[in-house]
Amino acid sequence: MENFKKNVQEKLQELDENQKRTFAWYCGMRALPFLGASGDFDFWDERQRQWYMFSCFHALDTAASDTAFDTAFDFFAANAAANAADAANAANDTVAFAAAVAAANAANAPYDTVAAYDTVAANAVFAFSHNTFKNIILKDIDSIKSGKNPSLSTEIYGEIWPNFLNALENENCHYWARLYESIFQGNFDRNALDLRLQVPEEIKKLGAAEVGHYLEKIEAQGAEQLDEARIIILGDKGAGKTSLAKRLKNPKAEMPKVEESTAGVDVSRWKPNEAEVHVHIWDFAGHTITHTAHRFFLSEHCLYVVVCDGRTERDKTLEYWFDHIKNYGGNSPAFILVNKMDNNRPEIAINNLKERYSNIQGVKTFSIKDDIKDLNDFRATLIESIKNQPSWNAQVIAKNSFQVKERLEKLFDEEDAEFITRESFNTIASKCGIEDTVEDRDELLRHLHELGVSLWYKDMEEYNTLVLNPEWISEAVYQIINWMHNNKKYSLRLKYLKEVFKENASRYPEKKHEFLFDLLKNYDMAYETEEEKNTLIVPHLLGEDRPKTLPDFPVGESLMLRYRAEAPLPPDTISRFIVRHSREIKKEEGKSIVWRFGAILEDGKGSLALVREEDRIISVSVKGSDKTAYISRLRETLSGECPANATEIYQWLGEDRDP
Ligand SMILES: Nc1nc2c(ncn2[C@@H]2O[C@H](COP(=O)(O)OP(=O)(O)OP(=O)(O)O)[C@@H](O)[C@H]2O)c(=O)[nH]1
Ligand SMILES: [Mg+2]
């Protein structure tokens, strides 16, 4: 193999950068069929399989696109494919592993200085494990050099080729099967590639099959541009978030009054003249109690603005907000606006912050009230930033789906309909030419939900409620939390909702209360106790103090596990864990042993666990006859809830075996 690599290296010296990129794509393509060599993709766990498949296909697409010379974009694709490769490796499928690595390398090669191209070639060969393949790859370099496209033939694969196509069909990936058949017949359609790269990120997350269906709809109906973006404004209470939201839309808008503090979130629309994009501005409340619901409303692919009050700002609060963005918004771009009220000049360790949070795009210091010129510059910066996000601008949706979206928006805009029934949706869908099958309509509802256009909760179908205004939900959630907090309650009875929505009963009529009540459960914010039907407990609102006495977990008889996070844990981490395991909460004299930061659990088979959060650590101690099985179950939930930066530390007290 070393000789082969050397050979590749030598030959590659004669290619320019673009040709090398082409070469990397060919290597990835040549290796691709090996992913399905055995006729299935079962080496990937079912839950992640669709995402891993898409990651590999997408990595190859980014490698093929010469327009998307965008590092972040390609790195993301390469990374995802590398994860897919790791997963195949973990399942001991070395052939699939090499094929996935080749895909990852193909996307990554242009940015990797160390012999990346020969590695991608070597992986392709490794997948094939046959020497003729080496010659094919070396010949590819010659063709590319002479300006010809190498021909991809399926013959050399023998059984592997039909196996690959079968594996795709079995995973519901007709689109991809057709695509690769056509590419291997020498037909590469640039326009189709562009469309694939313009699929909204939210849809990509649904995996290969869904992306395929999405694209098939577009092929059949034609594409419409979505042109929507979201700005999310965060920051402490009174920092000036609402002032900014108002003045982005209109620089001369009146400033909010002090008493007009935001209760949950205000969503408004802004159509800047300078861009073809509709911006939804989400102006959140600063009040801490509301942060627990951020998980549902903050997301990736948004533009974040953190506003801080120049008079009181300390780096700690900025860190808090940037950790928050990292947890819920991933690597979304973010700006800091230091609102210079009263001419104060704050000291912010901006370089330190930038080093820690690479998504910070810039810091501006001015007064929202007085510095109109700076405000206008800031607006221009935000518009520019939105225009330049390759993953949001120019996103596409199928024509008929777009019509449905427009009609739903019109219903809300012109008739103030915040929710409708499934039947009304069906009528609209029919008018827009969406096929009359449950699958097609469910799929459209799912896509509209992901895109945040309208919300349909599949497992709450019985309520027959399609929400047209996402703010209707967020408002309700915040109103409930605020009401409970103000009334010092941690449990919520269904009948309390009449009280909660007393002031806006027409917006939240009684017949919708059960839906909203169930939504809190659905969002894992609350759990229902076995004893009392129609009563929810919201762990986040429980008392903060731990019980006076906690059981002992003696060394030698107990197992222990800790998660230590680099940054403060998201405010709802432990609460969500408690909700997931609420059935196991231990009772003493009829009272559940659970508090804001922990709980005692029992598995019903004689094992007992203590789970608690302190500072940045979540610790789990377990004792009893079935402790090993129990701790693994708790671990599974926790590893899903803890942020990616948390490290897991096992302390096997007195035990010398692994779980
Ligand atoms: N003097 C002065 N006052 C300002 C400035 N910016 C905002 N304010 C005032 O500060 C108060 C709080 O501003 P808001 O925009 O409501 O703050 P917020 O961040 O939305 O606050 P919450 O919604 O409670 O989290 C309001 O009375 C604003 O008019 C400024 O630049 N100068
Ligand atoms: Mg506000």
Structural key phrases:
21 strands; 5 domains; 46% helix; Rossmann fold; 25 helices; 659 residues; globular; alpha+beta; disordered C terminus; 15% strand; six-stranded mixed β-sheet; six-stranded antiparallel β-sheet; binds magnesium ion; binds guanosine-5'-triphosphate
Structure description:
The protein is of the alpha+beta class. It folds into 5 domains: 2-197; 228-387, 3-Layer(aba) Sandwich (Rossmann fold), CATH 3.40.50; 399-449; 470-541, Arc Repressor Mutant, subunit A (Orthogonal Bundle), CATH 1.10.10; 558-651, TATA-Binding Protein, CATH 3.30.310. 46% of the residues lie in helices and 15% in strands. The protein has 25 helices and 21 strands. The strands form 6 sheets. It has a 6-stranded mixed sheet, with helices on both faces. A 6-stranded antiparallel sheet has the order 17-18-19-20-14-21, covered by helices on one side. The protein has a 3-stranded antiparallel sheet with strand order 11-13-12, covered by helices on one side. Helix 3 (46-64) crosses helix 4 (71-90). The longest helix is centred in the first third of the chain and has 20 residues, at 71-90. The radius of gyration is 27 Å and the shape is globular. Mean pLDDT is 87; it is low at 654-659. It binds guanosine-5'-triphosphate and magnesium ion (MG). Guanosine-5'-triphosphate (GTP) binds next to helix 13.
